[in-house]
User: Fold these one by one.
Assistant:
Number 1:
Amino acid sequence: MSVPPSPRGDQRPTVHVQDRYRSWINQSSVWLLVVDLIRHLQCFVAVAEELHFGRAARRLGVAQPPLSQRIQRLERELGVRLFERSSRHVTITKSGALLLDEARQLLAHSEALMATARRIQEGHSGLLRAALPPDITGETVAAILAGFQERAGGVELELHESGTSEQLARLASHELDVGLIHHPCDVSGLELGPVLRHELGVLLPHDAPEARLETVPLAALTGYDLILFPRAHAPAVHDDLLTTCARHGYTPAAVRHGQGPSFIRGLLLSSRAIAFGPRDAHHAGDPDLSWRPLSGAPLARRHSAAWPKGRGDAAVRAFADTVTDALGRTAAGPDLSTGPLHLRPAAEYWI
């Protein structure tokens, strides 16, 4: 029996209770099918990568017989044989190899879907919590804010300033959704965007003898103090830079810690000290300071967007893409693109 019209005279169509129930059942069935397909694909990818049902079962945390049954069901539903099995070996078929990339892409999309659902559940549906390191220039920050607004205008961006160590801790505790980190560092449990490589030169007083050189060998800086960010902000990056300097003949007379542009400028002008930075550093255009490239380009800043594995939803990826574009567009100098140079776990590009 249909619901009678409202006594207020509303002319809305009548709705059957059975129709409502049937619609809910249909939607629920679709979601169950989607979840079942995701589980099938997870099994397929695990077996394809392990080429061993026992190892794949342990990786997935399931028993081997149900795993074998899921693979058989997937083969029946797709109408193709995915694996050749023997008592000793499992090999992927040509059809299976052709479908593997598609399966991985579908799983990546499903992980993004689940990440979005988790952020909604945690109350962050319209909010992306992101972080940038303190040494990013104001021009780059402005480009990131503008670019993200174009890509994800419906998402509020909560932007923090923090070093790599702090970002890694906050990403691990899910206090941040995405960040821009410096390499090298421990990236276990993280997914990365492209690793961008930005050549570092030396910043020194305009009247320093080395400022008259077209390129400065690191060994020529002997006797100068080095102004460097505090080690606690990125220990591996800090140590890697000092090690590279030592290998090329430069051991600083002393290491002075500083990050703020005004503070660094004061140290450069009042003491026999130098700093390393990209051509587009905060002090570009300062008449009292000179930036010179280093001979052989031994030093580089490497950074990439990073986020917890399985939590890379559309907003996170929009931020990662925006950061990559903004760093490329705001990099100055002639050597903007000579990559990619292949690194693991991501590609490294000169900018």
Number 2:
Amino acid sequence: MAILFKSTPASIRRWRPFLTQAWPERDLRFWPEIGDRAEVRHALVWHPEPGLLASFPNLKLIVSLGAGVDHILRDPELPAGVPIVRLVDPYMTRAMSEYVVLQVLRLHRQDFVYRIQQAAAEWREHDQKNAAERTVGLLGFGQLGQDAAAKLKALGFDVAGWSRSGRAVPGFTTYGGAPGLNALLRRSEILVSLLPMTPETENILDAGLFARLPHGAGLVNAGRGRQLVEADLLAALDSGQVSAAVLDVFREEPLPPTHPFWRHPRIIVTPHVAAETHPPTATAIIATAIEDFEAGRPVANAIDRDKGY
């Protein structure tokens, strides 16, 4: 019974010592050294090529090496009936919250304005709101969104969240569905997207959404690159409807050197680092998921394929 690890060469180098230490007795196979495909029972993957997972005839479990599973679900040959587990790691949750707090503070304290003034050697003060006077909206109010919201609230921000279900979260104003989305957008001077990638969320960050934000709102996108209509963001920045944006995810990664986002004075680009997978902590979580599966116990964070998360 073999376990396949499929990711980038750099990722294999990071993960190998932790996996081999955790499972010294297991038959671990690191791509491209896969051996007999019929012996592979479990696959730990990040961005597997279409058709790869279907090539293992006895595959029983698929584990994503990150919180997202869209990179798996878009495979047209994905084996039916094989459970898919997404990685939920408190370390990654805390890292995402650090990123969100940093970028919200950057937008709140008008860092973009002062960076532009610094480049022009211009000394000019601007009126500054207190955090309690600043409304922040989070798209995606699951574990990641709620943890980030709690940390923002501790700093005094007026925080609300939106999810498809609109489930209530103690201590926060929450919204759901299309009417709820409109209500959240109208109140969000800073909008943070942590949405999972689903057919419903693709291209959600478009001109229509930006128009429903307060004029001059800021945007943080740490969800998925295909959720952002890039031309619409550039137009919203040019018109002033959106004052500035921090982007961690992109339609094409790495972001091409010629892309206009790199040199835009009101965009900050980070290279998909908001919440990187942390092998020392993630290994134990994956090991537990596989052990639970093999023992016939419920597996935490197994996804609903129809929902996409």
Number 3:
Amino acid sequence: MQYEIKQLGKFKYVEEGQGEPLVLLHGLFGALSNFKDLIDHFKTTHRVFIPMLPLFDLTILDTTVSGLAKYVQKFIEAKDLRDMHLMGNSLGGHVGLVYTLKHQELVKTLTLTGSSGLFENGMGETYPKRGDYDYIKKKTELTFYDPAIATKELVDEVYSITNNRLKVLKIISLAKSAIRHNLGDELQEIKVPTCLIWGKNDTITPPMVAEEFHKLLPNSELHWIDKCGHAPMMEVPSEFNMVLEKFLAKHKSQ
């Protein structure tokens, strides 16, 4: 199913369903397709939002994790959201953490999957010459335990981004910002209930990263998904949705 992309001022976003707000934050190469199963599942119980993060539209100085967190803050203010469930994958998890550190009063729960913020094997430092399709295909396949998940459509999407010089500069800027913006010293300040859902075979943010998040986030629980890489909500959506559904049900408003 294709979801309608709505516009409010400068914000483009998807909004589906009714109930408590569930805000989904995508990663560096995130597309709506990454969250299709999640939207389909949770729009029956939640008001699901996906703000389109302006990865390529900010000035180079604002193309940082903090710049994206400010954008999310303004989106949440524009939609007047509170008591929300925030979920982020990869860079989106990092952005969610930075936002939550400053706005815990608005966040009911936080869910992280393959999140950066402590350590990641980035794509950003080793960009090949533009036009190397096979390299991009292999890199995209590494995101998943099952390389078949990296469909031609997905590889083409990543390839088109990496074949644009300005977009490559923005991706490198974001990747470097994510590495520099290490949250190890601040995570203990987050008291919001946090669900960590991690692929056991994630090579980008390996299992030790999940364990470190679990150790540093005082109100966290950690769930493993076997035979799964960096994007569990794409690779094993039914298992991911089951874990997230149980977690959200525990923290539902009475």
